Amino acid sequence: MGNDAARHGANASAFLVNDSVTGLLNSSQFMKRAEELFYRQENGHESALLLVDLDRFSVVNNSLGHDVGDEVLRYAAQQITAALQPEDTVARVGSDEFLILCMDANDAQSAIAIGDRIVQSFDRPAVLNGVELQLSVSVGITSVTRRQNSIDIMHEVDSAMQRAKSQGGNQASLFEQGYSSRALYFLELEQALRKALDREEFILNFQPIYNAFDGALHGFEALVRWNRPGRGMVPPDEFIPAAESTGLILRIGDWVIDEALRQLSEWRQSNRFPAKLTVSVNVSPFQLANPNLVSLVRQLLTKHHLAPSDLLIEMTETAFVADESRMQATVRELAAAGVGLSIDDFGTGYSSLAYLRYLPAKELKIDRSFVAGLTTNARDEVLVSAVIALAHALDMTCVAEGVETAEQLEHLRRLGCDQVQGYFLGRPVPASALAETWQE
């Protein structure tokens, strides 16, 4: 872009500011500005369009409030603008999305370099309204020529951004032909998730947990499933990441806790199950970052006439990698309220013995991947034995997941594992199926 156009771009930006939160151009003003620049450029000249999406912004907004959310948006606008050239055009075009037009990025390498620069500008934690946040962005990139229409261009850049987000975020992705169908699938998935709760499409399955030595039923683990109309059961490893990336995991997680406690209360009243039966619920790191989680748990326990010790909250090790101080505060409050805490999938995440010193967890769960090799792999046996010994040394209960054979069960007994669950002992099934088949 020539110097005259650059000066015109800078002047235009000064008069077209309209977004009240960030001070950037809004969507319609951005399109007007882009059309003007495209009209001035020569045929065949390539530019780059970038779409920047704040990862997990809805979690921040819902958990910490709109004042902090607005501060995050202003901070993001500053970081993005600082990573660009003065002649680049940037606008806020959605609640947490920014569009950037770089007229002088005339090849893929230079466009990717801009995207990487934006991602890296969020590497350091930001302190906003007294809250320390580790923010990140997903950036989609596509090349633009004068001959393309705006609908195709926007489809391409959104597809690229969705790809970056589906791969975990905190990265830039260049548009590739053939990926757009997958991006559309994730967009449809997000829209369907938003309706699933209102339409009562989620269900809970319950897997029994037994005492390893006497076979007594200890409790059930509640596992959420999505019965999507026209599609059947959607695997959790597919819809849970989508729920986390959109912030819907907070609503889904609240429902899971409520429904699990309701079911436990119903079992207690039926007298068909042991009186001290407990229910375990998995929580996402995003739920642990929610300062309202503890009060919600208290309210739901009261609602269903249950004691705090009737509930066990399961957390994975990766929950404590990001925003560690917030996680620790929530976990300590839950423990102080009397709720049981369990570290799930132990050994598969970013294992650190350090956090076992200060987390008031009462249970360690051995991941199924170690149990699977218990009778065939000497190293797995050593690892399982070590985890059991570690749990007992810290006065914690040790639970083995994924028990699928009588040999594995017997091996775990010999090693001193306290509790077991797995397909050999019982598959996850709806509560109605348990009521029909259970015999105390």
Question: How would you characterize this protein structure?
Answer:
- The protein is of the alpha/beta class.
- It folds into two domains: 3-176, Alpha-Beta Plaits; 188-437, EAL domain (TIM Barrel, Alpha-Beta Barrel).
- It has 17 helices and 17 strands.
- The strands form three sheets. An eight-stranded mixed β-barrel has the order 8-9-11-12-13-14-15-16.
- α12 (324-336) links the parallel β12 (311-316) and β13.
- α9 runs parallel beside α11.
- The longest helix is centred in the middle third of the chain and has 22 residues, at 249-270.
- The radius of gyration is 26 Å and the shape is elongated.
- The termini are far apart.
- Mean pLDDT is 84; it is low at 1-16.
| Structural Rg | 26 Å
Instruction: Give the strand tally.
Output: 17
Unreliable residue runs: 1-16
What is the overall silhouette?
elongated
Domain EAL: 186-440
Domain GGDEF: 45-177
Organism: Cryobacterium zongtaii
Protein name: Bifunctional diguanylate cyclase/phosphodiesterase
Which helices and strands, and how do they pair?
Elements: H1 3-16, H2 27-40, E1 47-54, H3 57-64, H4 66-82, E2 89-92, E3 97-102, H5 108-120, E4 126-128, E5 131-133, E6 137-144, H6 150-166, E7 171-174, H7 180-196, E8 202-211, E9 217-228, E10 232-234, H8 236-246, H9 249-270, E11 278-282, H10 285-288, H11 293-303, E12 311-316, H12 324-336, E13 340-346, H13 353-358, E14 363-366, H14 368-372, H15 378-393, E15 397-400, H16 406-415, E16 419-420, E17 429-430, H17 431-437
Parallel strand pairs: 6-7, 9-11, 11-12, 12-13, 13-14, 14-15, 15-16
Antiparallel strand pairs: 1-3, 1-6, 2-3, 4-5, 8-9, 8-16, 8-17, 9-10
